[in-house]
């Protein structure tokens, strides 16, 4: 290869690197700027947001939204702890059961594999509806106003089981066969061999499951009347609803409403609820890219 060709190749590679870095920088800014606006909005007075809109830096600094949100700190902390307990417990248990179901469904020697797969898939197309589900949970399972009403519904997701099944198919059968020759049972193979090899898929599905639990508020709306069992998202939902009701009443009566946080409260609540779950991603990010490619064709 001539010197000119080598120089041209280096120039092309450098141009490609520059374009790549510029593109990544633009994408990062597109993701970062909205988050900065949320932080800035939560620290801005309501009157400033109403008159000037959102800014990257607060024009009138105020902690009124956080003060209003934490007006009853004991209830806020209780909901926080409950949501954390639900997220941790539900993610661990749900991920373990989903992995076991996926492992069984991908086993070629499981005689009823096709039948069970059909029943799993059927539930993704048809369901009994909201009313029969509510009757089942309340009248037959007696889960109203219990921790189980919040834990059980999001515990299993058939779509996640199908994804894990596809991922587990990429694990060579020779590993299972050699373990059986050495005398290992199915559960031992699953715990000591399959789970360690399935970390990328488990990390991805675990993150999705944790997000489902963290963001869940609908089950609290349906099954919970005890304030001690309000999840974080439902507590904030009620807080915004109560605030909106107060603002409407004060507007009808002609009272001053600009001092009450509205948009700034929404931004503050977004910061309060997204903080902990954001810190979960660094622990799973090294597996996340691998997990996103589950089911990909290997060369």
UniProtKB/TrEMBL annotation:
It comes from the Bacteria. Gene3D superfamilies: MetI-like (1.10.3720.10). The keyword Cell division does not apply. Keywords: Cell membrane, Membrane, Transmembrane, Transmembrane helix, Transport. The keyword Transmembrane applies. InterPro entries: MetI-like (IPR000515), MetI-like_sf (IPR035906). It is a multi-pass membrane protein. Residues 80-284 form the ABC transmembrane type-1 domain. It holds the Pfam family BPD_transp_1. The chain crosses the membrane at residues 21-43, 80-104, 116-135, 147-168, 189-214, 265-284. Belongs to the binding-protein-dependent transport system permease family. This is ABC transporter permease. It comes from Paenibacillus marchantiophytorum. The lineage of its organism: Bacteria, Bacillati, Bacillota, Bacilli, Bacillales.
């Amino acid at each position: 290869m001539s010197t000119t060709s080598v120089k041209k190749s280096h120039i092309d590679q450098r141009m490609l690197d520059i374009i790549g870095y510029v593109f990544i920088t633009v994408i990062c800014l597109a993701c970062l700027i909205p988050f900065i606006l949320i932080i800035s909005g939560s620290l801005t007075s309501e009157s400033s947001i109403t008159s000037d809109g959102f800014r990257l830096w607060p024009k009138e600094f105020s902690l009124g939204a956080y003060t209003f949100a934490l007006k009853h700190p004991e209830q806020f902390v209780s909901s926080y702890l409950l949501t954390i307990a639900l997220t941790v417990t539900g993610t661990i248990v749900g991920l373990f059961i989903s992995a076991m179901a996926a492992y069984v469904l991908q086993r070629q020697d499981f005689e009823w594999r096709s039948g069970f797969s059909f029943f799993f898939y059927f539930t993704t197309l048809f369901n009994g509806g909201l009313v029969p589900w509510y009757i089942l949970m309340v009248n037959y399972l007696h889960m109203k106003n219990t921790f189980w009403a919040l834990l059980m519904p999001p515990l299993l997701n058939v779509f996640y089981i199908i994804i894990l099944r596809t991922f587990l198919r990429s694990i060579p059968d020779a590993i299972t066969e050699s373990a059986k020759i050495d005398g290992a049972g199915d559960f031992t193979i699953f715990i000591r061999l399959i789970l360690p090899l399935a970390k990328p898929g488990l990390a991805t599905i675990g993150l999705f499951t944790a997000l489902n639990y963290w963001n869940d508020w609908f089950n609290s709306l349906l099954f919970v009347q005890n304030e001690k069992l309000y999840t974080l998202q439902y507590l904030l939902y009620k807080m915004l609803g109560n605030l909106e009701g107060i603002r409407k009443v004060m507007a009808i009566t002609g009272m001053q409403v600009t001092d009450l946080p509205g948009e700034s409260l929404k931004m503050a609540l977004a910061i309060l609820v997204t903080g902990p779950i954001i810190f979960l991603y660094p622990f799973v990010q090294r597996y996340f890219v691998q997990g996103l490619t589950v089911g990909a064709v290997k060369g």
